Amino acid sequence: VTAAEETLDPESWEELRALGHRMVDDMFSYYETLRDRPVWQPMPPAVRERFTSPLPVQGQGAPEVYQDFLDTVLPYVTGNTHPRFWGWVCGNGSGMAMLAELLAGAINSSVDGFDDAGSHVEAQVIDWCKAMLGWRPEASGLLVSGCSMANFVGLAVARNTAAGYPVKTEGLLAGPQLTVYGSSETHSSVRKAVQLLGLGGQALRTVAVGTDYRVEVEAMRASIEADRAAGLTPLCIIGNAGTVNTGAIDDLDALADLAAEQGLWYHVDGAFGACAALSDALRPKLAGFERADSIAFDLHKWMYFPYEAGCVLVRSDAEHRAAFRYDAHYMTPSTRGLSAATSQQFTEYGPQLSRGFRALKVWMGIKEQGIDKFRRLIEQNVEQAAYLAELVEAAPELELLADVPLNIVCFRYRGEQNSTIGAVDDARLNALNEELLNLLQESGTAVPSHTVLDGRYAIRVAITNHRSRRADFDTLVAEVLARGRILAKAAAQ
Ligand SMILES: *Cc1c(COP(=O)(O)O)cnc(C)c1O
Predict the structure, then answer these.
(1) Helix H or strand E segment including 384
(2) Neighbours of 326 (CB within 10 A)
(3) Quick one: which of 209, 223, 286 has its CA closest to 258?
(4) By percentage, how much of the chain surpasses pLDDT 70?
(5) For residue 304, with 0-12 CB atoms within 10 Å meaning exposed, 13-18 middle and 19 or more buried, which class applies?
(6) Is there an atom of ligand 1 within 6 Å of 273 CB?
């Protein structure tokens, strides 16, 4: 006999099978008991210390590794599966989607657009995304890691299509300075994309917003015309369908008109807001977004799917592909066999070659629940935001800091009228609210995050959570009032 050849497979599947069953059972119990646990808790130094252990040379075995997960990972995660997690913009995931991730891991496909089931699934999910948004059926699309990458892909197509010369081969030095226009509320991922595309961060012109945090369309026109007069080449307008700070939705119709009038590409960042299109009641708020040349949105935010899953849609398949296609013999589709192209070759529509099977969880999750369920959950979150805003407005010690057009509520504790930390003193209120938010998170009761609006520190509640109930917002308000009063009293002494 030759030396034993090795594999990562176990000698017997029985033990691993039993461990796998235990993991699945544990995770369902975890979901069942979410409410009994803190939303988040900080990792104690002794546990943190364990993450400095050296690279393992010998394996410790599967059961021990799972025990490490239970001891050092599970208790200290972000907590966005919890009903009272409302920080940043995070989805929850679901039991079925978790199982789909397990299946995707098991078959371990790289989804390239071959004649394989994974590619057929992704192509169908992209079709469903178009249908969900009421987007043109001839548009092209791609699943990507998230909206940052979706914005990047949309802007890469914009650059390739609208720069006015073959920028892909000749590079930016061969052409004029290109400029991009978005409101001051535009997400940082758009600036990152502009930087990565070589335009330079300053090519993103940030245009003023009104008190409703929607872009001033006339100011954008003026900025475009001034740049053009100065010899620059305006390339693209960004429309925001739900800003990260307050959920503000730009006048997307007016921006479509402006883009048409100026001959510019029109890209909409609809990270979470685009999903409001599922609801007939909410859809009018997005009017005009269907006129965009490209749109970016997330499936891991307001569609609640596990990370990572975002989507970009582009008006024309030819333009989308032209920005990323390349020639390589090893990737040329054949007419038969596995590499026969039956749908789009996904690698020619974005930066990735090897691509995970993120489509499976979306495909199984939408089939499991039906799209109408997602519509109802999105409407439920918008109603919960309105409810929270009512609670805030009904409490004289609280102050709403921005309109609530969708699912984001920004507010602060301002104390009793005439108290020593009256609303005149923003600096003291900012410090108080920052401390209040930290205490709230550290107590594990609820996790909102923060933002600063017009110099005022805001407790920011973004509701993309299918597990939240109205009573959770009662709890939040009661906690904020109780902690705010203690802090205000201490500050007054
Ligand atoms: C979250 C977000 C992004 C970035 O999306 P990721 O999925 O985190 O990459 C872009 N724009 C807006 C408005 C967002 O809320």
Answers:
(1) helix 371-394
(2) 9
(3) 223
(4) 98
(5) buried
(6) no
Taking alpha carbons only, the member of 79, 27, 81 closest to residue 304 is 81
Find out whether the beta carbon of 271 lies less than 6 Å from any atom of ligand 1.
yes
Separation CA 182–CA 148 (nearest Å): 15
Distance from C-alpha of 218 to C-alpha of 184, rounded to nearest angstrom: 14
Q: pTM score, two decimals?
A: 0.96
Q: Are 266 and 288 in contact (CB under 8 A)?
A: no
Report the candidate in 394, 376, 397, 402 with the shortest Cα–Cα distance to residue 461: 402
pLDDT, tens digit (0-9, with 9 covering 90-100), for 7-42: 999 999 999 999 999 999 999 999 999 999 999 999
CA distance 195 to 198: 5
d(CA 245, CA 213): 9
- Evaluate: CB of 109 within 6 angstroms of ligand 1: no
Beta bridge partners of 456: 453
Which of the listed residues 143, 148, 196, 297 should we mutate to test ligand 1's pocket, taking the one with most ligand atoms within 8 A of CB? 148
CA nearest to 184, candidates 159, 220, 158: 220
Beta bridge partners of 297: 311
For residue 147, the CA-to-ligand 1 centroid distance in Å is 5
How many whole angstroms separate alpha carbon 345 and alpha carbon 325?
9
pLDDT in tens, 198-223: 999 999 999 999 999 999 999 999 99
3-state SS string for 163-212? CCCCHHHHCHHHCCCEEEEEECCCCHHHHHHHHHCCCCHHHEEEECECCC
pLDDT given at position 258: 98
With CA atoms as reference, report the closest residue to 284 among 461, 134, 137: 134
Q: What DSSP state is assigned to residue 69? A: I
103 CB contacts (<8 Å, ≥6 apart)?
Answer: 360, 364
Residue 261, preceding bond cis, omega within 30 degrees? Answer: no
Q: How many CB atoms lie within 10 A of CB 131?
A: 11
> Which residue's CA is minimally distant from atom 15 of ligand 1?
244
